[in-house]
């Protein structure tokens, strides 16, 4: 049997050689395909190896019935529509770690070059000038570096910055303060407290809906005027126009940028053209060592896949046999939804997490359900596509152990999963059960019992148990044309504090939420977005 493998970005020769030496693999290298040609070429391919230059969009992947595997030589899979690939049964793998050191070193290179005006001084001297006074810089030693995102690259930057005698502070919802302290990093939470503390700020999070414009005009306004900002992660994490404006207005001192949105950036991109911004064309991972490392690893992943069916570093595929997956599907879905609920209830640094199983569910493979909870909890925050296979390991790496407790005593419900997350701010408790063979239900939030649907748009509000409040909520949403599908309230005693969960047919506008918050009887309002009823995780859908 012969498999055709397409390579559509520049891959180190060492990786190509490995692929070519593999019996049964036909390797086609073409780095000049436009989306239409790529789509056509994929119809004749069993596998593809890419870096960050190839966009595997839903359109490109649509109806690719021959394609079985995508291997990303690198970390970020944001140039692949992973849900679209998963839906089509295409395994997506990446090579995490292979370019971490190079990217951390590039971050340091940019930080140093920015501090010592290396690029400007180089241009000036080559243009025949000897401007020693103009390029007086600042030193890193003794300064405070703020790192947003303390994963692989963020931690590697922290270690190097400590070698330069910098004080390192940082924020990452998935690194416990204790683990950070062990690494000599002061954990700052909430993130808003970090901006005003730092002389240098560097971002190392994935780009997601939550992290887009992580640094915008409000955050820039809170920074010290001498601050220097570095982005060696993804364009889109920093509002490019706001950053350029803050530099021009002298509100901040400088910036260095390796990643843009889109790439390549248009010629009039405000950062590329700005005299105080040092730019490089996405070179973080562009070292001989990193490129060899990711290319060789990618080649090995691909040949193992075709030769023996092995799946490693898959970002969308659990190693679970079919029968077990079918039996567990609804429990896994409930675990994931509870995790997603927690991830949206609080942004504080996690101290501990516990999952309690009661009744029938306690006799199932609860490790898998706990992994599903962890995946739902972390899936919007991590660069890795979190799934059943990697969720608990990713949590552990961040100093978070998810404790499991179980009893087969059925209690009030036949089956119950109760989740508890303790952050430095407070303790959050939720519990869910299965209703029939199809439905998952939220039956407890904090100290309150209720019975709410665990899907779609949920408005959770704590309030004083006073007459007229339910009417007020209904009228407010009515005025904003938002339909209430279902409403539930829970309280400990009449007239005390209570909780309400409202299932909405659409996302309410911000003004509607503001109006609710102004009512003195309403104590807190959170909008939680969950998958629609019956929509299961891509990694459960295979
Ligand atoms: N410039 C390059 O060539 C290059 C090379 C490698 C990686 N990258 C990019 O660098 C980034 C980091 O890569 P990595 O391998 O360290 O990924 P990682 O998954 O190991 O780390 C990402 C970290 O960000 C944290 N995070 C997520 N949301 C956050 C938020 N709102 N606030 C604070 N922290 C948050 C996560 O908890 C995680 O610890 C990614 O965007 C990746 O694509 C760029
Ligand atoms: O392919 C590259 O050189 C960039 C890779 C980098 O952005 C990554 O996410 O691994």
Automatic annotation (TrEMBL):
Assigned keywords, A-Z: Amino-acid biosynthesis, NAD, Oxidoreductase, Serine biosynthesis
Reaction equation(s) it catalyzes: (2R)-3-phosphoglycerate + NAD(+) = 3-phosphooxypyruvate + NADH + H(+); (R)-2-hydroxyglutarate + NAD(+) = 2-oxoglutarate + NADH + H(+)
Alphabetized SUPFAM superfamilies for the sequence: ACT-like (SSF55021), Formate/glycerate dehydrogenase catalytic domain-like (SSF52283), NAD(P)-binding Rossmann-fold domains (SSF51735), Serine metabolism enzymes domain (SSF143548)
Protein's UniProt keywords contain Oxidoreductase: yes
A single GO BP: L-serine biosynthetic process
Lineage top rank: taxon: Bacteria
Biological or metabolic pathway of the protein: Amino-acid biosynthesis; L-serine biosynthesis; L-serine from 3-phospho-D-glycerate: step 1/3
EC number: 1.1.1.95
Keyword Oxidoreductase: yes
Functional summary from the UniProt entry: Catalyzes the reversible oxidation of 3-phospho-D-glycerate to 3-phosphonooxypyruvate, the first step of the phosphorylated L-serine biosynthesis pathway. Also catalyzes the reversible oxidation of 2-hydroxyglutarate to 2-oxoglutarate.
PANTHER family registered for this protein in UniProt: D-ISOMER SPECIFIC 2-HYDROXYACID DEHYDROGENASE FAMILY PROTEIN (AFU_ORTHOLOGUE AFUA_6G10090) (PTHR42789:SF1)
NCBIfam families: PGDH
Protein name: D-3-phosphoglycerate dehydrogenase
Annotated source species: Singulisphaera acidiphila (strain ATCC BAA-1392 / DSM 18658 / VKM B-2454 / MOB10)
């Amino acid at each position: 049997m012969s498999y055709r493998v397409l390579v559509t970005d520049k891959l180190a020769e060492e990786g190509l050689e490995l692929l070519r030496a593999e019996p049964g693999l036909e390797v086609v290298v073409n780095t000049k395909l436009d989306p239409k040609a790529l789509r056509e070429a994929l119809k004749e391919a069993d596998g593809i190896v890419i870096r960050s230059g190839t966009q595997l969009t839903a359109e490109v992947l649509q109806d690719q019935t021959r394609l079985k595997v995508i291997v990303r030589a690198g970390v970020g899979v944001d140039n692949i529509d992973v849900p679209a690939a998963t839906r089509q049964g295409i395994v997506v793998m990446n090579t995490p770690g292979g370019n971490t050191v190079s990217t951390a070193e590039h971050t340091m290179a940019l930080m140093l070059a920015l501090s010592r005006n290396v690029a400007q001084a180089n241009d000036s001297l080559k243009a025949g000038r000897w401007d020693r006074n103009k390029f007086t810089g600042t030193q890193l030693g003794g300064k405070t570096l703020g790192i947003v995102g303390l994963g692989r690259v963020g931690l590697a930057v922290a270690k190097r910055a400590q070698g330069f005698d910098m004080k390192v502070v940082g924020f990452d919802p998935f690194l416990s303060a204790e683990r950070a302290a062990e690494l000599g990093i002061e954990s700052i939470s909430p993130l808003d407290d970090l901006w005003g503390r730092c002389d240098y700020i560097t971002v190392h999070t994935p780009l997601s809906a939550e992290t887009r414009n992580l640094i915008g005009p409000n955050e820039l306004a809170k920074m010290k005027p001498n601050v220097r900002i570095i982005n060696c992660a993804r364009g889109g994490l920093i509002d490019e126009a706001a950053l350029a404006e803050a530099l021009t207005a002298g509100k901040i001192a400088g910036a260095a940028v390796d990643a843009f949105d889109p790439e390549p950036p248009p010629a009039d991109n405000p950062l590329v053209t700005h005299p105080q911004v040092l730019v490089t064309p996405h070179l973080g991972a562009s070292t001989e060592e990193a490129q060899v490392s990711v290319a060789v690893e990618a080649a090995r992943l691909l040949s193992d896949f075709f030769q023996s069916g092995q799946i490693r570093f898959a970002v969308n595929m659990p190693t679970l046999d079919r029968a077990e997956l079918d039996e567990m599907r609804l429990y896994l879905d409930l675990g994931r939804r509870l995790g997603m609920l927690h991830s949206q209830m609080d942004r504080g640094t996690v101290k501990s997490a516990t999952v309690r199983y009661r009744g029938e569910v306690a006799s199932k493979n609860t490790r898998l359900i706990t992994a599903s909870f962890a995946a739902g909890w972390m899936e919007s925050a991590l660069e890795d596509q979190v799934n059943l296979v990697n969720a608990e390991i990713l949590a552990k790496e961040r100093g978070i152990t998810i404790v499991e407790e179980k009893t087969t005593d059925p209690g009030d419900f036949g089956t119950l999963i109760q989740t508890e997350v303790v952050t430095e701010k407070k303790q959050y408790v939720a519990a869910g059960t299965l209703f029939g063979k199809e439905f998952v239900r939220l039956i407890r939030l904090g100290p309150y019992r209720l019975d709410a649907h665990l899907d779609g748009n949920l408005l959770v509000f704590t309030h004083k148990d006073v007459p007229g409040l339910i009417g007020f909520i209904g009228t407010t949403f009515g005025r904003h044309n938002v339909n209430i599908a279902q409403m539930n309230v829970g309280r400990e005693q009449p007239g005390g504090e209570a909780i309400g969960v409202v299932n909405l047919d659409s996302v309410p506008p911000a003004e509607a939420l503001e109006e609710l918050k102004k009512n003195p009887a309403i104590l807190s309002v959170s909008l939680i977005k969950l998958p629609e009823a019956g929509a299961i995780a891509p990694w459960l859908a295979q």
